[in-house]
Amino acid sequence: MDGSLFTAARMRAIEAAHFESGAATGAELMERAGTGAVAAMEAAWPDLAARPGRAVLACGPGNNGGDGYVVARLLAQRGWDVTVFALGTPRAGGDAAGMRARWGGPPRPLSELRVQGADLLVDAVFGTGLARAPEGLEALFAASRAGPRVLALDVPSGLDADSGRVFAPGQAVRADLTVSFGAWKAGHALAEGPALCGQVRLVDLGLDLSGAAAKLVGPPHAAALLKGGGHKYDDGHALVLTGGFGHTGAARLAARAALRVGAGLVTLGAPGSAMLECAAQSMAVMLRRVDDGAALAELLRDARFNALCLGPGLGTGDRAAGLVDAALAAGRGCVLDADALTVLAARDAPFGPLHANCVLTPHDGEFARLFPDLAERLRAPAAQGPLWSRIDAAREAASRAGATVLLKGPDTIIAAPDGTVAVHAAAYDRATPQLATAGAGDVLAGLIAGLLARGTAPFDAACRAAWLHVEAARVFGPGLIAEDLPEALPSVLRALAHGT
Ligand SMILES: NC(=O)C1=CN([C@@H]2O[C@H](COP(=O)(O)OP(=O)(O)OC[C@H]3O[C@@H](n4cnc5c(N)ncnc54)[C@H](O)[C@@H]3O)[C@@H](O)[C@H]2O)[C@@H](O)CC1
Ligand SMILES: Nc1ncnc2c1ncn2[C@@H]1O[C@H](COP(=O)(O)OP(=O)(O)O)[C@@H](O)[C@H]1O
Ligand SMILES: [K+]
């Protein structure tokens, strides 16, 4: 995936502007969409292109159904045996009604849907116009999980195009291939979207795209990551705070990641009880004793410590609380992860001390502790669409916190306080289920801290770290444990440098 993600409402506005400018008519766009869908299907499944078989189409009452009638006609022209089942009737005089008339044969009611013996099921019931929980589509949903290959037009019916959520479990088509018209919809990348879309191909409709809900995070430029040839202090000094004896592994992982991503120096700040443990396991990473907030404030008188990382293995007691206060008071680049987020969430006013150089990296549980109302809104069943998305939640969280928020998951959202949002989708050809391993998040926190130390702005540091994290997991492959991630980074950086 690359480019940007759009909402259904924005797509409607872009489409309307396109018509108004006279660039194309609705019927022309529909024809382009159907033609592109058939081409994408044939490219994905050459066996079906070579030997047309039996196709079953499910067409809805709106323009998604209109696209379906185009596909029915084109498949029939190619020699397919086509049966169309319809839900409702398109509005008389509209583009979809025109396409239905051009298809010809009267469709059968969707309630009679049968897919036995079919090679292809084309889902054209609902696209970006899905406005409420679908009813009476159980047979379609079940058929999409058994039997023929499934091509979904624009979005699998039942999937909310803005959020990638479904109104109720199982209430959506599961496609093998989804052909998206004009642009990626946010729902292709978020939540259940990737699992329900199968794979996604984009059909260019020649639309003038602007006003995206979020950018997709792509590979960083090598020049932004490779060292520039100066002194080590030119690449900053990151300080990673650790908890006590027996709990230092997480911070050590973060520290190593910060060093690997290019921070000039990295120091672990440990309480007295953990000094020996850290010293025994550190070489390039340096070590300082930091017993409490006062000691941290004293250490930070050295302005060369320009980025901090607190949370991994930090603990949630008084020492941790003191460290969080001292760290935030210093105003430096600061990653707050794991226990540091729990410390903040327990306070009456968690966001007061945060500032624009902070990056918060909650997973869903930590997010729910910090922003319970936003998490509830994401979970709540809804009768009406469009559904609230993780993009909406992260954007609101960043605005409230006055800091960059990176909401972790296979669909990682990075939101800046000014409303800018990016999505890193570890999906489709970048799926990395191997990242669901203890300590992976600690490494991510360290990567961000390392990039902050190098002077990267918080939002960019979070985006680049998210990409590097997943790329390191991809390069390593199955069997990954968190320790492997920093060690896989050199080959990721090498590939970026060589443009491969
Ligand atoms: N935006 C664009 O640039 C283009 C859009 N096209 C197609 O147009 C689609 C959007 O078309 P529409 O806006 O007509 O929307 P849809 O075709 O997705 O569905 C809307 C229709 O279904 C009804 N509906 C919504 N939810 C329902 C529910 N739960 N139960 C029963 N009925 C329900 C609505 O009242 C409306 O009649 C896109 O997904 C795409 O397939 C393409 O034709 C080409 C260009
Ligand atoms: N299935 C998955 N696909 C892609 N990334 C994942 C998946 N599961 C977890 N991750 C990523 O792995 C990291 C896990 O972080 P976290 O939940 O904090 O775990 P830990 O505390 O064990 O380090 C996050 O960056 C998250 O985005
Ligand atoms: K559809």
Automatic annotation (TrEMBL):
Keyword Lyase appears in the UniProt entry: yes
Keyword Nucleotide-binding: yes
Residue runs in coiled coils: none
Span of domain YjeF N-terminal: 11-213
Domain YjeF C-terminal: 215-496
Keywords (A to Z) from UniProt: ATP-binding, Isomerase, Lyase, Metal-binding, Multifunctional enzyme, NAD, NADP, Nucleotide-binding, Potassium
EC number, UniProt record: 4.2.1.136, 5.1.99.6
Reaction(s) the record says it catalyses: (6R)-NADPHX = (6S)-NADPHX; (6S)-NADHX + ADP = AMP + phosphate + NADH + H(+); (6R)-NADHX = (6S)-NADHX; (6S)-NADPHX + ADP = AMP + phosphate + NADPH + H(+)
Domain of life: Bacteria
Binding note for cofactor: Binds 1 potassium ion per subunit.
Binding site for (6S)-NADPHX: 63-67, 127-133, 154, 250, 313, 363, 442
Binding sites annotated in the UniProt record for AMP: 408-412, 441
Cited Pfam families: Carb_kinase, YjeF_N
Cofactor entry: Mg(2+); K(+)
PANTHER family: ATP-DEPENDENT (S)-NAD(P)H-HYDRATE DEHYDRATASE, ATP-DEPENDENT (S)-NAD(P)H-HYDRATE DEHYDRATASE FAMILY MEMBER
Family: Belongs to the NnrE/AIBP family. In the N-terminal section; belongs to the NnrE/AIBP family.
Binding partners and assembly: Homotetramer.
Function: Catalyzes the dehydration of the S-form of NAD(P)HX at the expense of ADP, which is converted to AMP. Together with NAD(P)HX epimerase, which catalyzes the epimerization of the S- and R-forms, the enzyme allows the repair of both epimers of NAD(P)HX, a damaged form of NAD(P)H that is a result of enzymatic or heat-dependent hydration. Bifunctional enzyme that catalyzes the epimerization of the S- and R-forms of NAD(P)HX and the dehydration of the S-form of NAD(P)HX at the expense of ADP, which is converted to AMP. This allows the repair of both epimers of NAD(P)HX, a damaged form of NAD(P)H that is a result of enzymatic or heat-dependent hydration.
Protein known as: Bifunctional NAD(P)H-hydrate repair enzyme
